[in-house]
Design brief:
The chain is of the alpha+beta class and 740 residues long. The protein has 25 helices and 15 strands. A 6-stranded antiparallel sheet has the order 3-2-1-6-5-4, sandwiched between helices. Helix 1 (2-72) crosses helix 6 (251-307) and helix 10 runs antiparallel to helix 11. The longest helix has 71 residues, at 2-72. The chain is flat. Residues 634-733 form the HTH araC/xylS-type domain.
Length: 740
């Protein structure tokens, strides 16, 4: 019985085995033949790509040489800057430089220079005025500012009528390189040289290569018969815009053979499908006895379970319990792995990782992390206007949008050939570690392109924007923390440089604390003008904002300066009337503080704070105009500014002129200007003294008398007390600054 069942099963499957194995051998040899043809086709495609790269490399080398010589070569600079139009020595030097270029790059057919100032053309073979030069139409077209400055398409170039014309491609570069205002350099490369440069790459009897310029004109082609040839590859150069086409001479025959292969392959698929149907039929027929046995077992399952004390229920329960425990263990393992990854990421960016190289490799294997490459760079993606984002979306929508941001980075990275690791390090900052396995410049460029595309995608598809701070590339994992700090530092300049952009260390100037402190005097000057109701405070305020922007201060530095402005303004207001103090405490101070806390850009801060200050300035002006002696104090100030050189200028002098008690004058002066009379007078006199010390060479006694002091000793004592050093030292320092 067993032998019969065995033979039955064996002979049932034997036809399927024989048919499939036989056809498999046939298909194998067909695939082997087709693979050879495909390899030939791929080799032909690589031929076209190699030809494109070879020509592009040669043309780029010529282009880079021309740019370098335009910037650095003295002969070329002298030629285009030549004030003596017929200086033969300079022309000969320029021609010699052309010959050197042609000798160094044999692919170059000819070179000529065009000087705009006198329309003079100088080539390696001749010189003439532009109007007489045979290539004048091309030059006129190239002189158009809108004309593309790149390799031209094929064109006919003729230097001498006796030699005739030849097909060339030309490169036009301006001189100097940046502006191109003084002339141009034209380099001509014959198409025959391009063809000869790639002639050794292929056998013209079996394959061909054709090149067309951006306009579709043939530079050259080995294609002699379109009926016997077929194009199999077409590449377009991103540098020149030329298209490179290649194929086989007997391309039609190649295509027919490939089609026959497809027919045989379809027949094989049909045969295998038939064998699969036969397999199902035989299996179904042979499985019927087994199905009957299983059906009978299922019929006896329930009674048997009761007789055996529900043993099968126990087994089923045990299996279910094991599966459930396995699932729970896997879930817990995944959660622990995620937490370990986050913890390890924070250790890396905070500089607390103490793992050796072998331990790091073990962690990457266990946590499925990317292996460390030659270089790493850390970027911090910060969500702009995060407070508005939180107010606009629910917690669920916030998490969904953050997930979308992180996902798009993970999806775009493989397209740029980059491996990265990202984690949220704060509610509004996503930190990304990019592993670079290429040259430094190439890796940096690719990284910038990736995150520029991420920024644009977020701007177009999500309802918020992001700013990306980019640290510097580091070669050691222990230096990742430094790259992270650089990325955070770059984001501190977002308030000045603007949101929704990439910020690198190249965008940041190196400004120290001295520049920040230098703005304190400007702030005090603004508040003094504001306090004295001088309209020039607005001009000073705009100048302060521009200096903060040009000085590239961080957000913390700008916030500190603005808080100092509020503090100093409040200090001045404290010496004024109760009415003004109430307006400041009720309206001015709260609004300015809110603006500083909530503004996301320096321009927004300038506009909103200026609105508040203008409003408060109007209230302050109205309050002072309502006071009885406001006009009198303004007249006193004007008199002091005009007669500060009067040695008799004092409170008693003013009280006698304006018929007001001296002590009352002092009190009014303090209330209206925020300064003591003596301080105001000394400040004006010393400003005048500084001008005299800087701009003239008069003696100290004369300076003292011109600013209201009868004695040079008393003048020097007051000057040193206020300024910090004596008048003579001040004059010497000013002279050194002017010389420097």
């Amino acid at each position: 019985m067993r032998k019969t069942l065995f033979n039955r099963l064996l002979f049932s499957y034997m036809p399927i085995f024989i048919v499939v194995i036989t056809f498999t051998f046939f298909v194998f040899f067909q695939i082997l033949s087709e693979q050879s043809r495909k390899e030939a086709l791929n080799a032909n495609k690589m031929l076209s790509l190699q030809a494109m790269r070879l020509i592009d490399t040669s043309l780029k080398a010529i282009d880079n040489m021309i740019m370098s010589e335009t910037i650095n070569n003295k002969q070329l600079i002298d030629f285009f800057n030549n004030e003596e139009k017929n200086n033969i020595f300079i022309n000969i030097s320029a021609v010699k430089k052309m010959q050197d270029m042609i000798s160094y790059y044999p692919m170059i057919d000819s070179i000529y220079f065009v000087r705009y100032e006198d329309n003079f053309v100088l080539s390696n073979a001749t010189s003439d005025q532009l109007s007489n030069y045979r290539d004048e139409p091309f030059i006129k077209k190239a002189m158009d500012p809108l004309a593309p400055k790149q390799w031209s398409g094929i064109r006919s170039f003729e230097q001498f009528s006796t030699k005739g014309s030849k097909p060339v491609v030309s490169l036009v570069r301006g001189a100097p390189f940046i502006t191109g205002k003084k002339g141009m350099i034209v380099v001509n490369v014959a198409t025959d040289s391009l063809q000869n440069s790639i002639a050794d790459l292929y056998d013209s009897k079996t394959s061909f290569i054709g090149i067309r310029d951006a306009a579709g004109n043939d530079l050259f082609s080995d294609l002699h018969s379109e009926e016997q040839s077929k194009i199999f590859s077409n590449y377009v150069s991103s540098y020149t815009g030329w298209s490179y086409q290649s194929g086989l001479i007997n391309g039609k025959l190649f295509h027919v053979i490939s089609s026959l292969y497809n027919v045989w392959f379809i027949i094989g698929i049909v045969t295998i499908g038939g064998g699969f149907v036969w397999l199902i039929y035989v299996t179904r027929r042979n499985s019927r006895p087994l199905e009957q046995i299983v059906a009978r077992i299922r019929g006896y399952r329930l009674p048997l379970s009761k007789e055996l004390g529900d043993e099968f229920s126990f087994i089923e329960s045990a299996l279910s319990n094991i599966i459930e425990q396995s699932n729970q263990y896997q879930q817990k393992h995944d959660e622990d792995r995620h937490l370990r990854k986050r913890y390890l990421f924070h250790q890396l960016i905070e500089g607390d990782m103490g793992l050796t190289h072998e331990e790091w490799i073990g962690e990457t294997n266990s946590l499925q992390l990317p292996y460390s490459f030659n270089k790493q760079v850390v970027l911090v993606i910060e969500m702009d206007k995060y407070s508005d984002f939180c107010c606009q979306y629910s917690r669920r929508d916030q998490n969904l949008l953050k997930f979308a941001l992180r996902s798009v980075i993970q999806e775009l990275a493989p397209k740029y050939g980059l491996v990265l690791w990202s984690e949220w390090t704060s509610p509004f900052q996503l930190s990304v570690m990019v592993f670079v396995d290429s040259e430094e410049e190439a890796g940096t460029s690719i990284t910038h392109k990736l995150f520029e595309s991420v920024r644009m995608w977020v701007q177009e598809n999500l309802k918020f924007t992001v700013t990306v701070g980019i640290g510097e590339q580091v070669t050691e994992l222990s230096s990742v923390a430094n790259s992270y700090k650089e990325a955070l530092r770059a984001l501190k300049y977002k308030i000045v440089l603007g949101e929704n952009r990439l910020i690198t260390s190249d965008h940041i100037a190196n400004h120290g604390q001295v520049e920040v402190f230098s703005q304190l005097n400007v702030i005090r000057s603004i508040i003094q003008s504001f306090r004295l109701l001088e309209d020039e405070w607005k001009t000073k305020y705009d100048k302060l904002m521009n200096e903060m922007k040009l000085g590239l201060l961080t957000k913390d530095e700008i916030t500190n300066l603005m808080n100092y402005l509020i503090y100093y303004l409040g200090l001045e207001i404290s010496g004024m009337t109760k009415e003004v103090q109430e307006i400041w405490m009720r309206d001015g101070l709260p609004r300015l503080s809110k603006i500083i806390d909530e503004c996301h850009s320096l321009e927004q801060m300038r506009e909103e704070s200026l609105t508040v200050l203008n409003s408060f300035y109007t209230d302050l002006k109205g309050a002072q105009n309502r006071r009885l002696h406001a006009a009198t104090i303004r007249d006193m100030r004007k008199m002091i500014e005009e007669e500060y050189a009067n040695p008799n200028m004092s409170l008693e002098y003013l009280s006698s002129i304006f018929n007001i008690n001296g002590k009352y004058v002092s009190k009014l002066f303090r209330e209206e200007t925020g300064q003591k009379f003596v301080d105001f007078l000394i400040d004006i006199r010393l400003q005048a003294a500084k001008r005299l010390l800087t701009e003239t060479q008069v003696s100290m006694q004369e300076v003292a008398e011109k600013v209201g002091y009868t004695s040079a000793i008393s003048f020097s004592r007051v000057f040193k007390k206020v300024v910090g050093y004596s008048p003579s030292e001040f004059r010497e320092e000013a002279a050194r600054r002017q010389i420097g």
